[in-house]
Amino acid sequence: MMASSSSYNSPCAACKFLRRKCLSGCIFAPYFPPQDPQKFINVHKIFGASNVGKLLNEVLPHQREDAVNSLAYEAEARVRDPVYGSVGVISFLQRQVDRLQKDLDSANADLIRYRRNTTPSSRLSSIQLPPYVYHNNVNNRPWNCHYPSNNSRGGGGDGGGSGGI
Amino acid sequence: MMASSSSYNSPCAACKFLRRKCLSGCIFAPYFPPQDPQKFINVHKIFGASNVGKLLNEVLPHQREDAVNSLAYEAEARVRDPVYGSVGVISFLQRQVDRLQKDLDSANADLIRYRRNTTPSSRLSSIQLPPYVYHNNVNNRPWNCHYPSNNSRGGGGDGGGSGGI
Does B159 contact A59 at a Cβ distance shorter than 8 Å? Predict the structure, then answer.
């Protein structure tokens, strides 16, 4: 946990940006130190100071630092990519998971083929197939993100962004 | 592209929620139809109507539907998980990528071992190692997301959410 506003000689980055007095107990002060003004500028631009304050009051005190940092990550992603924001990162990672799973399935199929074709007298027969041959499943996903696809980037698209996670 | 507000008998979901007249050319109408009020309620709660309107005006018209859908996805993720939002999905996917890459590296190492130990007279010598044995690289990431780790969930954490993507 970072120091409260009373530890600073200057107001926190939020109060400085909003041109208001940084009072003791300021909800922003522990998470928006004056040394990092851009962090607040980004979350203010994307979420609005009022919404960030409301969200901080809705979560438990020990969760607030994580909440602010995840908001700051999302805000920076949206500033960099106004169309897709952090959803662009999710889309990229999901495609990477799909590609890796496909490659792993191929590798596992080859390992099974090697093992089947190896004669019993071969010293290779002692090699056991590792557990990852069977336990990976591309359908084992706790979320369902269909957005955005490669094809939808740059126009039209199939949307579906409100799909649950 | 969805129909404009003039095609509806009722105002768009945004104007209905904000209790204002839905004029022709309303920036929200094509993307927030009255049939889906929750989509606007979520983005309004998380981003604020004003910020969504500003963002829509900043991107090109053909990018607006994707922008709204990605905002709706992020907003729903934040409503479901106020602490981590869509960053929780990114964290989960990144761990899955790391696990799959590790499993693939192990499978590839075993394939190389099988091939090296196979005698030239074996019919297996004709099996070529597939290209995925060499071309995967866990460091091949266009973004850098250190947040949140498993260990940081539920308190404290190492932050770092403002890392670039």
Answer: no
User: How many Cβ atoms are within 10 Å of A100's Cβ, its own excluded?
Assistant: 24
Contacts of A88 in chain B (CB under 8 A): 70, 165
pLDDT at A120: 53
In angstroms, the separation between the Cα of residue A9 and the nearest Cα of chain B is 24
Q: Are A15 and A28 in contact (CB under 8 A)?
A: yes
Within 8 A by CB and 6+ apart from A156, the residues are B1, B62, B65
* Segment holding A48, helix H or strand E: none
The pair of three-digit structure tokens given for residue A117, joined into one six-digit string: 């074709």
Interface contact flag, A89 B63, Cβ < 8 Å: no
DSSP state of A5: G
Helical H segments across B59-162, by residue range? 64-80, 86-117, 132-135
pLDDT greater than 80 at residue A88 = yes
* Nearest-by-CA chain B residue for A88: B70
Is the Cβ pair B72, A161 closer than 8 Å? yes
Chain segment A89-136, per-residue pLDDT in tens: 999 999 999 999 999 999 999 999 888 876 554 444 454 555 555 444
**What is the pLDDT at residue A129?**
52
Q: Encode pLDDT of B37-62 as tens digits.
A: 999 999 999 999 999 999 999 999 99
> What is the Cα–Cα distance from A145 to A151, expressed in whole angstroms?
15
Chain-chain contact of A63 with B83 (C-beta, under 8 angstroms):
yes
pTM of the model: 0.71
Which of B40, B5, B2 lies closest to B23, judged by CA? Answer: B5
Number of residues in chain B: 165
Mutate to test the interface with A, among B47, B103, B117, B137 (most CBs of A within 10 A): B103
Instruction: Please judge whether B165 and A80 are an interchain contact, meaning their C-beta atoms are less than 8 angstroms apart.
Output: yes
ipTM for the whole predicted complex goes beyond 0.85: no
- Quickly count helices (H) and strands (E) in chain B: 6, 0
